[in-house]
From TrEMBL:
InterPro entries: 5peptide_repeat, Pentapeptide-BTB/POZ_domain. It comes from the Bacteria. Coiled coil: none annotated. SUPFAM superfamilies: Pentapeptide repeat-like (SSF141571). This is Pentapeptide repeat-containing protein.
Length: 626
């Protein structure tokens, strides 16, 4: 057993005594601690049980004799000068003359003027032939640090009581640790390999580079546990909490703060509620009824504002991942998808998390923040992003390319600037969902409720809308090259009618259900156009300016805002553009063209501005002003 004293405060120039060894089997006095000389400049001497070469003649302020036995642990008797105060960190009142000492006790003289930290450590040699159970429990009870020991094939550690222990470079191999209690312990470089640890208690533990491999941890508790403060060097050295091929079903990780890696592990019914998961990775794990309610996923270099709703800066790549282990670039496209079923991520902060290549079934993302997350190539089935509390998720700036949503609740979900190339949404609810500035190229929305959905400023190039409800949907200033609503035209034939009059007599039909479309810049419903007019715009027979101008001439009472009035007045009496490109919609010159609508028209009264605007309209039929 190694015994040592650390002497402080550090600013005092006192040489540290060398650590000395004593057998774990020893019984009797192990050392004497002396403090003497000038109290403002004290001298400290730690003497093992050998005769002193010379006895200090200066005044003694304090001395303590410390003894050890396996049965009684550390005991002491001491003397201190009446003019000074002495206390132990494990003793609230004045230090008694005779008492017990723990292997991590601090002896304070004159309220910390001088502090002596007592440390004791055992290793493999001390274990010897001692019973591992008694050895561990006695070390825990006496505050002795257990270091560099391997416990292999130990079967009698069932219900081990090892609270507040310290383990450093310790291995448990093929051991039985079910119902063991490690509450409040400190683990550093500890491994549990192929061991049974069901119902074990790791509450309030500090964990640094702890590895569980092929461990059975069913219903174990890790509540309030912590990994050490992480930094880049620790990440590079893989100093994390690791679970490899473990059974963690029904485990509890409530309010933990961990940097961890879970791989090929069973996480069915595992509870991570209100946990802070730092750079955590979940590869090829079984997720069924797993709970992440109110959890926070963060990555190195990410800052979070006080509201915990928005990440403000990122200096490192995304490292929080849930799904299949990524393949190497040389192995081609990911074929295997992970499965996340019946899980809860409600009210979680998951900005920048990578959830790509997963099949996500019956899972709850209500009120979840997924800003700039990766949801690439996912399949969402019966998943909700807005639930019982009517709080919607925020999926802004997220990569949703090649993903599928089937029978999902996306009501009022924010998808600002989302990237959704070749995304398919089918039989889902998206009432008042917001796709402003999003990219939906080559995507499909089928048999879905899009009532009040906001597409303003979005790229809808080659978007297919089939059998959707589009009542009051907002399409102001969208890019609509190739927008497909399965339009069918019925023309009412009249003799001696001009081409323009014939166009006005066209009746447009679509597979979608439309009462009216919102064409307001602010999405406030002040400019609404009917189904026939909207479909004529999409089909390329009329421009939006012409439609709105006609509404103005008809005196429609709902055109109230100044912008709409200015548009209709500056548009003139006839802005119908007969040119139709391959993508329909007269305001698109190319399938992948740039912005379709131009800047807002100046307010009425500025003659020069109006003339300039009319001139630009004549020069290009590929743009429109609304």
């Amino acid at each position: 057993m190694i015994i040592s004293f650390a002497i402080g405060p550090r600013e005092r120039n006192i040489s540290l005594p060398e650590a000395f060894d004593i057998s774990y089997e020893h019984k009797g006095c192990i050392c004497t601690v002396m403090v003497y000389g000038d109290i403002n400049n004290p001298q400290v001497l730690v003497v093992p049980p050998t005769p002193l070469p010379a006895i200090p003649i200066s005044r003694y302020w304090f001395f303590m004799n410390i003894s050890w036995s396996k049965l009684d642990g550390f005991e002491f008797n001491h003397y201190s000068d009446p003019e000074i105060s002495v206390s132990l960190n494990s003793t609230v009142d004045t230090l008694p003359t005779i008492g017990t000492l723990r292997g991590t006790d601090k002896i304070q003289i004159n309220k910390g003027f001088l502090t002596l930290t007592f440390k004791a450590e055992v290793n493999q040699t001390d274990l010897g032939d001692n019973d591992p159970r008694i050895f561990l429990e006695k070390c825990s009870e006496s505050g002795i640090k257990v270091a560099y020991i391997e416990f292999d094939g130990v079967s009698n550690l069932y219900k081990l009581n090892c609270q507040n222990c310290q383990l450093y470079n310790v291995k448990f191999i093929n051991s039985e640790l079910s119902l063991a209690s490690f509450n409040g312990s400190k683990f550093t470089h500890v491994q549990f390999i192929n061991s049974t640890m069901e119902f074990a208690n790791f509450t309030n533990c500090q964990l640094s580079k702890v590895e569980f491999m092929q461990a059975r941890l069913r219903e174990s508790v890790f509540d309030n546990s912590r990994t050490l403060n992480y930094n880049k060097s620790r990440l590079e050295n893989n100093e994390y909490l690791s679970f490899l091929n473990c059974d963690l079903s029904y485990c509890s990780f409530l309010k933990t703060r961990i940097y961890s890696k879970f791989e090929d592990s069973n996480l069915e019914n595992t509870n991570f509620s209100e946990s802070h998961l730092i750079d955590c990775i979940f590869y090829d794990c079984a997720f069924d009824k797993t709970i992440f309610t109110k959890s926070r996923f963060t990555t190195l270099g990410v800052q979070i504002d006080k509201s915990q709703k928005q990440n403000t800066s990122v200096t490192e790549s995304i490292t929080c991942r849930i799904g299949s282990k990524p393949v190497l670039p040389t192995q081609g496209k990911v074929e295997k998808k992970g499965t996340i079923s019946n899980c809860k991520f409600d009210n979680a902060l998951m900005n920048y998390v990578d959830l790509s290549n997963n099949v996500i079934i019956d899972t709850d993302f209500e009120a979840t923040y997924l800003l700039k997350a990766k949801l690439y190539n996912c399949e969402f089935i019966r998943t909700t992003f807005n639930g019982k509390t009517l709080k919607s998720a925020d999926i802004s700036d997220t990569n949703l390319c090649f993903s599928i949503f089937n029978q999902c609740n996306l009501n009022e979900v924010r998808l600002h600037r989302a990237r959704m190339i070749e995304t398919r949404i089918e039989k889902s609810d998206l009432v008042k969902a917001n796709f402003s500035n999003a990219t939906l190229r080559n995507s499909s929305l089928i048999e879905s409720n899009l009532t009040g959905v906001d597409f303003r400023y979005a790229d809808l190039t080659l978007l297919t809308l089939d059998k959707c409800h589009l009542n009051c949907a907002k399409f102001f200033q969208t890019q609509r090259g190739g927008l497909n609503l399965n339009i069918v035209i019925n023309e009412v034939q009249h003799q001696n009618k001009s081409d323009k009059q014939a166009q006005n007599n066209r009746v447009y039909q679509t597979s979608c259900f439309i009462d009216c479309i919102d064409w307001s810049p602010k999405g406030d419903g002040e400019i609404q156009i009917d189904k026939n007019s909207f479909l004529s715009i999409v089909n390329g027979d009329k421009s939006a300016v012409a439609v709105i101008s006609n509404l103005s001439k008809e005196g429609a009472q709902f055109i109230l805002n100044t912008y709409a009035t200015a548009n209709s007045q500056s548009a003139g009496n006839d802005l119908i553009d007969g040119s139709v490109n391959i993508g329909r919609d007269v305001n698109n010159s190319e399938i992948l063209g740039a912005s379709i609508e131009t800047e807002q028209v100046p307010e009425p009264g500025d003659d020069k501005s109006s003339e300039s605007q009319d001139s630009s309209s004549d020069q290009s039929s590929n743009q429109e002003d609304e």
